[in-house]
Amino acid sequence: MTRSVPTTPETVRQQAAESAAKRRKRARSAPIRWRRRTLLGLYLVFVMLPIYWLLNLSFQTNSEILGSFSFWPQNFTLGNYVGIFTDANWYMGYVNSLAYVLMNMLISISVALPAAYAFSRFKFIGDKHLFFWLLTNLMAPPAVFLLPYFQLYYSVGLFDTHIAVALAHCLFNIPLAIWILEGFMSSVPKEVDETAYIDGYSFPRFFVTIFIPMIRSGIGVTLFFLFMFSWVELLLSRTLTATNAQPIASIMTRTSTASGIDWGTLAAAGVLTILPGIVVVYFVRNHIAKGFALGRT
Amino acid sequence: MNKVYNNKAWFLILPMLLLVAFSAIIPLMTVVNYSVQDVFDANTRFFTGTEWFETMLNNPTLQAALLRQFAFSFTILAIQVPLGIGIALLMPKRGWQASAVLILITLPLLIPWNVVGSIWQLFTRGDIGLMGVGIRQLGYAYNITRNPADAWATIILMDVWHWTPLIALLCYSGLRSIPDAYYQAARIDRASKWAVFRYIQLPKLTNVLVIGILLRFMHSFMIYAEPFVLTGGGPGSSTTFLSQSLTTMAIGQQDLGPSAAFSLIYFLIILLVCWVFYTAIMNMQKDNANQGGA
Amino acid sequence: MEWMVWTLPTAIFFSVIAAILLGMTAWELVSPTVERRGFLPIATTRGDRLFIGLLSAAYIHLAVVGFTDITIWFALGASVLWLLVLMRWG
Fold first, then answer.
1. Chains that touch C (3 or more CB pairs under 8 A)
2. What does the pLDDT look like over A61-101, one tens digit per residue?
3. A129 to C28: CB separation less than 8 angstroms, yes or no
4. How do beta strands A256-257 and B37-39 pair?
5. Could you say which of 2.40.50.840, 1.10.3720.10, 2.70.70.10, 1.25.40.10 is the CATH number of the domain covering B61-293?
6. Are A132 and B278 within 8 A, CB to CB?
7. Least Cα separation, residue A260 to chain B (angstroms)
8. Which of B131, B177, B243 lies nearest to residue A143, judging by beta carbons?
9. Distance between CA B38 and CA B254 in Å, rounded?
10. Which of the 8 DSSP states describes residue B3?
11. Closest residue in B to C28 (Cα–Cα)
């Protein structure tokens, strides 16, 4: 690091001030930075510890889990995972869950996009009340709708199909998608729309070729949230399925039998339910912060 | 943004409206129908009028579950909101560390709710769980299936583990939207850390915090799968919350009428709280817009 | 439709709600609402006042049915009266 020799009194003073500031900053911030890191580290340990324990147990046999207490697997085994991947009843649970989650994401995003556009660009009769009604569906406890759902889907012949669960999850996922997308769309200046219309674009062409590419990070984040809430829901998916479309979450209850609980398989199945989430969150990691504020910060 | 008044926007809403109405209005109507009858099956039913509402409102079990629910919701909010703000302030702002911390912190939100229950069951059991064994080693007879206080504390801890990330991420995104110029101005004024937090960071956080509190409050009212797996609502009924009482009544005992009446009361409570929060958010945004315009 | 177990009172209830919503829409088309401050602490439109009225009506009914022996028709009367007051001066 070479410094030019100061030639004027101003530069001398400036350089002195700069180096003093740097020294002061370094002296002050080193302990503070370490304190911040320690506190954050402690929280991360708190977050990871239960997950680590799940991972640890998933690599042990049941006799080891119950017989000896250890912080890491003594006899490392993949037996629990092999058991899940070789039993069609088990791995079909993951296929079923992913199937209805993907269907739900597709349905929700395709009807939510135009609706969110309408809410972000236009005023119309009952717009605020409609928005509030959507919000109440997001907040409504699924337990309230449980009984009629069973009857409704049974009577239209959709009981125990993937599409039934996908439609049921629309109840809270469509409002959520509209809420998030509306925030992202409102941050696109209106002049974009107007210029496109002046250039002779029709609404559908403008919407698909110009507008959607402009908010693609918002759409990515929305898809992430749709995935998340459909993937984690248990009550509706369990009630609306019996055998053909049974989600993994309800298959997991099978680990507890009369002869006790199959801890190893339970842990391994749990680990496998976390993996899709990690993959999805990795893709949107750079936009997720904005998405969590529903596009409005 | 100045919105155009145009009722044709309804056509853009329509597909969504049909789908949500199918999932929301038809079931809601059915619940109302159930609530005034004693239903055995579609052909055998008796009109009971308001009887179920009267029974449910005066049912001590449900009143206790409601009180427990409020106690639970306020406890977790009191812990999660300050903790979430604190973590958001600690999170690194850029670089690979920011991404890594973000992914790790989001992790609990992506786990199916019953698996969250299973994870904590495995973690807190006295014979095979790290925490359960650890606390017993320290000399405290920790037992969530016998001791209501232990069960209650564990459920709170589980919920803090599960949902604090939501508040933290909301606040983090709020903090990131503060322009650097604000911090520079504060440095020139030699503002203390507390002053920076109080006058620069907190005002920017109120918007996201209200959303966060709304979401957390509502979700805590729906909590079902986690305590169901972890404690089964016990010991006794010390951790039985509203959703679980309702599900037990509806699915377990097939009492359609009473559980429908109870659903409606539950729904009205949610509706009121939701409306109060929504109005607060809307008025806040209006105030912000007015200040921005002035 | 059979599984929805309709009864006459609930059918009337939902018809009235639907009629009110249609009426409000028509009214809005004829003369659009203006947001204003009444005795409520927030500025409201007609639709807001209707919602507040209906929600409080639900709570009035619950209170009367659950905790008193007064007939439900009294609650209905009180609710309608309250709704009118709210729409006019709220």
1. A, B
2. 888 877 777 788 888 888 889 888 888 888 888 999 999 99
3. no
4. unpaired
5. 1.10.3720.10
6. yes
7. 14
8. B243
9. 11
10. P
11. B7
Query: For residue A285, which of B105, B27, C84 has the smallest C-alpha distance?
Result: B105
- The number of residues in chain C equals 90
Whether A54 and A270 have beta carbons less than 8 Å apart is answered as: yes
A84-292 CATH pick, 3.40.228.10, 1.10.3720.10, 3.40.50.720, 3.40.50.300: 1.10.3720.10
Q: How far is C64 from chain B (nearest CA, A)?
A: 9
User: pTM (2 decimals)?
Assistant: 0.85
Helix ranges restricted to H, chain A: 9-58, 62-67, 79-86, 88-121, 127-139, 142-155, 162-186, 190-198, 203-206, 212-214, 216-232, 235-239, 248-251, 263-283, 288-292
Q: Please say whether the dihedral angle defined by the alpha carbons of residues A60, A61, A65 and A70, taken in this order, is positive or negative.
A: negative
C31, amino acid identity:
S
Distance between CA A72 and CA A76 in Å, rounded?
Answer: 9
**C7, C10, C66 ranked by CB distance to B54: nearest:** C66
pLDDT tens digit sequence for A154-207: 888 888 899 999 999 999 899 989 988 888 888 888 888 888 888 888 888 999
d(CA B269, CA B173): 30
Amino acid B229 reads V
Residue B107 CA to residue A277 CA, distance in Å, equals 7
| Length, in residues, of chain B | 294
Which backbone phi and psi does C44 adopt, to 5 degrees?
-130, 155
Give A243→chain B minimum CA distance, Å.
Answer: 18
